[in-house]
Design goal:
Radius of gyration: 14 Å
Low-confidence stretches: none
Strand order of the largest sheet: 3-6-7-4-5
Number of helices: 5
Number of strands: 7
Shape: globular
Structural class: alpha+beta
Largest sheet: 5 strands, mixed
Mean pLDDT: 89
Length: 106
């Protein structure tokens, strides 16, 4: 899938989602959690692939991930753990959601 940004520039969905991705500390995400807009993505999944599934409204795949707790709303326990360590996370904005995934040390 491609997204038209102007007459001459076409950007793939993957490229656009990559541009929306950043490493960020939990304290900068907490307000999205408080609003019920923070979605946890298990480290075993590709963050861009999950965002693509959400963007394309692939309910069957999303349901599979949710049933195995690989994708869910950030839980209170996760939020507490992230807050205690001010965890660094990968975050991807897919309005109105913010997908978060624990960042691996670099």
């Amino acid at each position: 899938m491609t997204i038209r940004t102007d007459k001459e520039n076409t950007v793939s969905l993957t490229d656009k989602l990559n541009l929306e991705t950043a490493r960020i500390h939990w304290r900068e995400i907490e307000r999205f959690f408080a609003a019920g807009k923070a979605i946890f993505v298990a480290p075993s999944l590709d963050l861009i692939a999950v965002a693509t599934v959400l963007h394309e409204d692939n309910a069957a795949q999303l349901r599979t991930w949710m049933e195995t707790s690989q994708v869910n709303a950030v839980t209170d326990d996760q939020a507490k753990e992230f807050a205690e360590t001010d965890a660094e996370l990968w975050a991807l904005v897919l309005a109105p959601w913010v997908l978060v995934q624990p960042a691996t040390p670099s």
